[in-house]
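Budget justification aside, the reviewers requested a transparent look at the raw inputs and outputs of the sequence design task funded under Objective 1. We therefore reproduce one unedited record. The lines immediately below are the structure tokens for a 310-residue chain.
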């Protein structure tokens, strides 16, 4: 159902633009060259979180081959139609990789496709890009548009290695990874284009509650890496069934209070809501004056702090 950018069908828009559209959308990129770290899952939750606060959100799936985000939205639209629900939807696009054989021609085509997709979403408050779990030119182009880059990371030294090489003796960072170098390159490109730097956030994902020894070691290593690479570290999501079980319905935890869904919000979801709220706060969306205890009976009520959107 998604627009192939070379194709035609678009996702729906809800809610409608409410205010000044002259400002540039804030671009949030979910990226990590490691596969399966939670990019698409976190992207989906942030997109729905923003929509539920009344922002106009565009989404671009740069992982057309896998198409997880696109399928999530397709599932959402089918579920909403079947049940007669008025769920908020982003406007979404899929940008595919070029099939041209000549490298520079292929890169130009990919750059143009992405620019076209971003331009077509220029009336949005936010544009969220989901990237594949591997390096390619299109993904690098995507990173170069990031005002905010969010890198989900499984709680494992194997994943940490994708950010920087760590000395096992003293937890010092020996060298940045290829991915960190690539992000650095994109930061430089942005600064040269006068677009400002990239606010790089690393969020831990699928945290286990029991493994406290591993967690402590990871804490140390991650703190060192964040200091050296100039990134912000946030707590992220724990391992929870709720983050994966709603995919086929295209729902998130933020939707299940909607009348007409067949999912019940339980006490165990409160902590998950808090984790989503922490992520939203890290990207500058703050709920105001709401007590923790209200979480299960209230959607995330957040407001855009002045200054986040240029
Ligand atoms: N916090 C979580 N709790 C439980 N399951 C999770 C959590 N985060 C992600 N998952 C599950 O982990 C798997 C990988 O997640 P996801 O597809 O979001 O990762 P990805 O980084 O987008 O992967 P890829 O690199 O292949 O695109 C999925 O099965 C997803 O449902
Ligand atoms: Mg993905």
């Amino acid at each position: 159902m998604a627009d192939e950018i070379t194709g035609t069908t678009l996702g729906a828009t809800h809610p409608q633009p409410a205010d000044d559209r002259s400002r540039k959308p804030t671009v949030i990129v979910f990226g990590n060259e490691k596969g399966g770290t939670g990019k698409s899952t976190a992207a989906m939750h942030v997109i729905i979180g923003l929509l539920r606060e009344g922002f106009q959100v565009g989404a671009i799936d740069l992982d057309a081959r896998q198409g997880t985000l696109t399928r999530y939205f397709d599932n959402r639209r089918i579920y909403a139609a079947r049940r007669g629900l008025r769920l908020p939807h982003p406007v979404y696009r899929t940008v595919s990789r070029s099939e041209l054989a000549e490298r520079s021609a292929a890169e130009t085509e990919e750059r143009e496709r992405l620019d076209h997709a971003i331009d077509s979403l220029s009336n949005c408050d936010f544009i969220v890009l989901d990237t594949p779990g591997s390096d390619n030119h299109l993904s690098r182009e995507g990173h170069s548009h990031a005002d905010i880059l969010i890198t989900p990371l499984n709680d494992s030294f194997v994943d940490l290695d994708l950010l920087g090489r760590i000395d096992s003796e003293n937890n010092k960072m020996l060298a940045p990874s290829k991915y960190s170098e690539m992000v650095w390159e994109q930061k430089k490109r942005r600064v040269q284009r006068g677009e400002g730097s990239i606010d790089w956030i690393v969020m831990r994902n699928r945290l286990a509650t029991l493994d406290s020894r591993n967690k402590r070691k990871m804490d140390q290593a991650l703190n060192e890496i964040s200091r050296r690479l100039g990134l912000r570290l946030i707590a992220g999501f724990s391992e929870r069934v709720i983050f994966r079980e709603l995919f086929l319905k295209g729902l998130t935890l933020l939707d299940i209070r909607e009348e007409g869904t067949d999912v019940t919000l339980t006490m165990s979801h409160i902590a998950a809501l808090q984790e989503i709220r922490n992520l939203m706060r890290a990207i500058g969306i703050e709920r105001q004056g709401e007590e923790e205890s209200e979480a299960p009976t209230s959607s995330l009520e957040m407001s855009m702090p002045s200054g986040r959107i240029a």
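The first strand starts at residue 26 and ends at 30. Residues 23-264 form a domain with the Rossmann fold fold (CATH 3.40.50.300). Computational costs for records of this kind are itemized in the attached budget.
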